[in-house]
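Box 3.1 A note on notation
Throughout this textbook, protein chains are presented in two layers. The first layer is the amino acid sequence; the second is a token string describing backbone geometry. Keep the layers aligned when reading.
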Amino acid sequence: MTAMKTALTSKTPLSVFLYNRPEHSERLFQSLSACRRLDECALHVYCDAPRDPSAAAQVAATRLVAKAWCERLGGNLVEREKNVGCAASIVSEAATHCQQSGRVIVLEDDLMVHPEFLNFMLGGLDRYEHEEQVFQVCGFLLGEPQPIRQDVLFLPFTHSWGWATWQRAWRHFTFQPDLVALGLQSERGRWRYNLRGSFHWAETLIKAMQGRGDIWDAYWYAAAYKHGAVTLYPRVSLVVNNGWDGSGLHCGARPRYGIAMNLNPEWPPFPSAIDWPRQAEANQAAYRRVQKYLRRQEKLWKRRPSLLARIRGRVSPFVPDWLKTSLRMVRPKGRQPDGGDS
């Protein structure tokens, strides 16, 4: 095992996180084994321990799958003796690999990847290694393929289904984000943070900070948002999530984001020689299409703050507390206090 680790240190770490889904894990490894440039990656597979005795059988079956594929692909298998949890495991190992190798690619057990997935990830990591504004490379694209000429594009948000990053970006990850710095104290700030009212990132972050759910990606988005960062995406998705069958912690039994259970996806064509954008800037037209798509999926209306609310949010920091109190006592003509007589 020690010799294997020494031989892999010069390669890009590819971290795969498994728990109790042997069938999903098998499909992931099958798709991964078909990827070009897999030989340029150092495969590390992490199998978490059961949370309770009822999960023991499925965990054991998953470990057998992982062991067989690690032997076949020359990977490093880590079998946890205690249950670490998804969030803690991913965050810890991502930090370790970034510190040791400067970068990392991360996959979870419910994903399947395109044969060009690793070529895209490794190419993106190389091309934008020194672009401070680029925090992530992600293989999953929300919605339909983007109608653009280039093969890839930048968007101003992160995603956790098949991603990679560098040490220079991951060092900003924290479990104690500054909510004021993120602008979450105002209605307009929350609207902007929530992808212009199309997703619920602010609510998810608060939930995570309250200890409700095994969540890590909300903190990662917070770090990227704070620094005005962008993520590199392919024009068409190179990742399929097959976890929408009720078997996972975060994915229910009803497919979301238009992703149905498809054990043999017909992958769209994707070029081997990728046309990389020169400027790391968000594609605003593509961003608007993603927002529209998310509002339909999340059943959210475009809840942009009113003009009055936006003005109030801008001037509020400069208004003395005593004046704010006085202004709250003045009500528009014809409006009565709650519970008052009409």
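The radius of gyration is 23 Å. Residues 2-172+227-298 form a domain with the Spore Coat Polysaccharide Biosynthesis Protein SpsA; Chain A fold (CATH 3.90.550.10).
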